[in-house]
């Protein structure tokens, strides 16, 4: 439901207080009014029973072979579309379906009595010629100045060609549209495919089979763009209307040219009489002749002149007709009335200048709501808001009736599904002072549209229909009120995406990105970069998508936005997958974490997980991977390759962490496989020798590992260095030839010096001696260090974090399996 047209039952209202509903421009306070979309708040219990905030309006659609989830909170998510969710080939609409779509895309009908429909004068020859060319399958370009009646002629020819093509007549608007957007509009008008936007290859395949008469009004491009449009639709006959300032078709374009000029003198007088509704007197006929010469016979000028004469007739009947509600309070026009002896007040004819530029005089005799509507249209670059928004913008409950006044005076003209100021009207109103408060009115319109576009009851299709006015408000505020422009773009852009108005989506994103840069809102700028990257990825522009996504990831990394970074990396992985290249840092598409996992940001190139956050003890012979928390999304889990990517230094550190993890796994394995006479706590004793691991990663009997010759520095029991508790790696080597004869370690290091001193320093870098009742005979000699094992750390070198302390049990195990220090 449109929030501007609420029913009396909504929010429990009885329909009596409509002023507050229609006036509702939200001021930012959370008072529980209907403007905020929440029930009224109880002032006695402000902290109890408050409703939960409205859920974000997400839309899931299929774009090519991607499944796109438009998320207005964190940014859109994109992934390959699962086979079960891919739509079948779209079916074409029936004739009734096309007619219903045509009625829905027409401009709104003004409220009040139906306006008289003016005839199409002096256009019969052009009308018949256009119909003949289209019947032969030829495409035609109708060129005429603004106000020459091109739209009226197109509507008449469309009625004549209703049964020529199998897909009927398709009416499109080229106002601010590119060739690609028009192709998508043509596809949507003929095919019934909700929430589906084909990619370029699929689009060309589908539109190639369309056989229709395409009536295209307000085209704004020519040349190569027009060639692209015509070449993509060989089975369609186009009737295109454009102004002379639009680029001409290329020389090779097979397009007929028809020029539309103004009306003759007789046709202008007849049109003026039809507009006034009576026969003109001699004075008025002479005035109309001068107007015809001045306006070059443009029909728009005669329709506006007819509105001036109608106002003159009303003034002659009642001189105060336009003063009842103070209509002349802000008018620069001085209405002087000369009373005649017979016919009452004598109202002079408008001057020739007023007839050629009648906007200011016509507006001066309109209602205050109509004049306020014109001021909003001037502030929005000529775009007229939908009549449902006028009560909220103007502040008058019945302001929607202003549309009928403006259409009756020919101050506005239909463009696509909305209205805008007619040709030349904006400049005339600006000269009359209607642009004095343009900045304030543009800001008010932006605030209103930001509230309305984010309302849960407003569908994305409805927001897309109002895209031109929303973009006009954005363009007016980007440089002056950047904060309001960011809010509007942030709210409207997801609705444009969900409504499949992707041209408006891109323009809103670019305006929002510029406004966010001007206002210094880094988080919002990162969002717009991300959305532009998603849009480029859907369009197959991989280089552009990569640049936008990398910019977004960089900004979100600076803000520590984990969810945003993961979403961006997933999209960047799809870019790398499509382009066949590698991601920054040497990663491939398979190494990017899934959106189901949240992980903290890491430096470029990554760090080994073994030196990161603490983790529970691993299973034997496994690598320690980064801690991950499941969240929404789908895809493969993080892989080992993503941990060790980066520079050579990180690769060495990762290898050390892997070796340490393997040794830890061996210690756990030895403790689990020892016999039943083990000491309490399953600690390794001197009678237990190291065993070779099954997969080759454990301890061996003839090659001691590096950790077997290292010693920790953390004091343990009794303050002795190297006796701290905890599972630590144990070295491997040859078992001792003579067992110690004790089932339990003595708990104290040996007090007797060795019979044969070693050349190695007896600093903390050496291993503690094995507690024993009697010395081994003969004394052991220091083992030869394997070539792959680095030498022991010098005494002056402090221990590093890469050499963890060794527990007494592990040192005992090392001594019992070929210890490095001789005992007495």
Summarize the helices and strands and which ones pair or pack.
Layout: H1 18-22, E1 59-63, E2 66-70, E3 77-80, E4 91-92, H2 95-104, H3 124-135, E5 140-143, H4 150-160, E6 169-173, H5 179-190, E7 191-192, E8 196-197, H6 200-207, E9 213-217, H7 224-232, E10 237-242, E11 256-259, H8 265-276, H9 282-295, H10 299-317, E12 338-339, E13 345-346, H11 352-356, H12 359-364, H13 368-379, H14 390-394, H15 402-408, E14 412-415, E15 418-421, H16 425-431, H17 438-453, H18 460-465, H19 467-477, H20 482-498, H21 502-519, H22 522-538, H23 542-558, H24 562-579, E16 597-598, E17 629-630, H25 648-673, H26 808-816
Parallel strand pairs: 1-8, 5-10, 5-11, 6-9, 9-10
Antiparallel strand pairs: 1-2, 2-3, 4-7, 12-13, 14-15, 16-17
Helix pairs in contact: 3-4, 5-6, 5-7, 8-9, 8-10, 13-15, 13-17, 17-19, 17-20, 19-20, 19-21, 20-21, 21-22, 22-23, 22-24, 23-24
């Amino acid at each position: 439901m449109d929030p501007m047209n609420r029913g009396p039952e909504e929010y429990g209202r009885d329909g009596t207080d409509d002023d507050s509903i229609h006036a509702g421009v939200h001021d930012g306070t959370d008072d529980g009014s209907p403007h905020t979309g929440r029930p009224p708040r109880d002032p006695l219990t402000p902290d109890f029973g408050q409703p939960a905030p409205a859920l974000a309006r997400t839309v899931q659609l299929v774009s090519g072979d991607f499944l796109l989830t438009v998320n207005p909170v964190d940014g859109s998510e994109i992934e390959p579309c699962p086979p079960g969710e891919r739509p079948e080939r779209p079916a074409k609409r029936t004739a009734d379906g096309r007619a219903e779509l045509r009625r829905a895309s027409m401009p709104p009908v003004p409220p009040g009595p139906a306006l008289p429909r003016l005839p199409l004068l002096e256009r019969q020859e052009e009308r018949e010629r256009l119909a003949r060319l289209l019947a032969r399958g030829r495409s035609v370009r109708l060129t005429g100045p603004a106000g020459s009646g091109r739209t009226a002629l197109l509507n008449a020819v469309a009625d004549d060609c209703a049964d020529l093509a199998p897909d009927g007549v398709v009416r499109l608007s080229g106002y601010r549209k590119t060739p690609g957007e028009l192709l998508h509009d043509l596809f949507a008008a003929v095919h019934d495919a909700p929430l589906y936007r084909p990619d370029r290859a699929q689009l060309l395949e589908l539109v190639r089979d369309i056989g229709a008469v395409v009536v295209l009004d307000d085209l704004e491009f020519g040349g190569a763009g027009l060639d692209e449009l015509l070449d993509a639709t060989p089975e369609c006959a186009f009737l295109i209307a454009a102004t002379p300032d639009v680029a001409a078709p290329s020389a090779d374009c097979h397009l007929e040219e028809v020029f539309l000029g103004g009306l003759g003198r007789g046709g202008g007088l007849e049109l003026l009489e039809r507009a006034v509704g009576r026969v003109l007197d001699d004075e008025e006929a002479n005035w109309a002749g001068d107007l015809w010469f001045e306006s070059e016979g443009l029909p728009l000028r005669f329709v506006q002149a007819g509105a001036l004469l109608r106002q003159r007739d009303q003034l002659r009947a009642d001189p105060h007709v336009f003063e009842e509600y103070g209509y002349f309070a802000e008018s620069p026009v001085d209405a002087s009335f000369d009373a005649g002896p017979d016919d009452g007040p004598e109202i002079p004819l408008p001057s020739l200048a007023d007839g050629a530029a009648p906007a200011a005089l016509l507006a001066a005799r309109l209602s205050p709501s109509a004049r306020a509507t014109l001021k909003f249209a001037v502030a929005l670059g000529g775009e007229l808001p939908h009549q449902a928004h006028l009560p909220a913008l103007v502040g008058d409950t019945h302001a929607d009736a202003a549309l009928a006044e403006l259409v009756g005076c020919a101050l506005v003209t239909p463009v696509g599904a909305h209205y805008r100021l007619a040709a030349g009207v904006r400049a005339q109103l600006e000269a009359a002072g209607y642009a004095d408060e343009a900045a304030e009115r543009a800001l008010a319109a932006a605030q209103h549209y930001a509230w309305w576009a984010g309302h849960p009851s407003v569908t994305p299709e409805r927001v897309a229909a109002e895209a031109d006015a929303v973009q006009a408000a954005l363009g007016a505020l980007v440089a002056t009120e950047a904060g309001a422009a960011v809010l509007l773009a942030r709210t409207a852009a997801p609705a444009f995406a969900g409504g499949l108005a992707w041209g408006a989506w891109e323009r809103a994103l670019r305006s929002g990105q510029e406004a966010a840069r001007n206002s210094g809102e880094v988080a919002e700028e990162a969002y717009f970069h991300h959305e532009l990257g998603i849009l480029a990825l859907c369009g197959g522009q991989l280089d552009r998508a990569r640049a936008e996504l990398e910019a977004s990831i960089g900004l979100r990394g600076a803000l520590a936005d984990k969810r945003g970074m993961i979403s961006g990396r997933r999209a960047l992985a799809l870019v790398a997958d499509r382009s066949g290249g590698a991601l920054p840092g040497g990663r491939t598409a398979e190494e990017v974490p899934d959106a189901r996992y949240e992980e903290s940001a890491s430096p470029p190139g990554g760090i080994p997980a073994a030196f990161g956050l603490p983790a529970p003890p691993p299973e034997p012979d496994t690598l320690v991977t980064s801690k991950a928390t499941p969240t929404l999304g789908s895809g493969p889990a993080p892989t080992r390759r993503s941990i060790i990517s980066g520079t050579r230094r990180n690769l060495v550190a990762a290898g050390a962490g892997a070796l340490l993890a393997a040794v830890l796994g061996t210690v756990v394995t030895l403790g689990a496989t020892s016999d039943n006479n083990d000491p309490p706590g399953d600690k390794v004793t001197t009678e237990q020798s190291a065993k070779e691991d099954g997969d080759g990663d454990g301890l061996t009997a003839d090659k001691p590992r590096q950790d077997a010759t290292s010693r920790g520095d953390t004091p343990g029991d009794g303050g002795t260095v190297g006796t701290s508790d905890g599972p630590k790696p144990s070295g491997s080597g040859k078992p001792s030839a003579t067992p110690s004869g004790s089932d339990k370690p003595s708990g104290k290091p040996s007090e007797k010096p060795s019979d044969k001193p070693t050349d190695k320093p007896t600093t903390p870098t050496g291993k503690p001696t094995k507690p024993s009742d009697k010395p081994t005979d003969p004394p052991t000699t220091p083992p030869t260090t394997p070539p792959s094992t680095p030498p022991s750390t010098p005494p002056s070198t402090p221990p590093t974090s890469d050499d963890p302390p060794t527990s007494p049990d592990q040192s005992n195990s090392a001594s019992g399996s070929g210890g490095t220090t001789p005992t007495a």
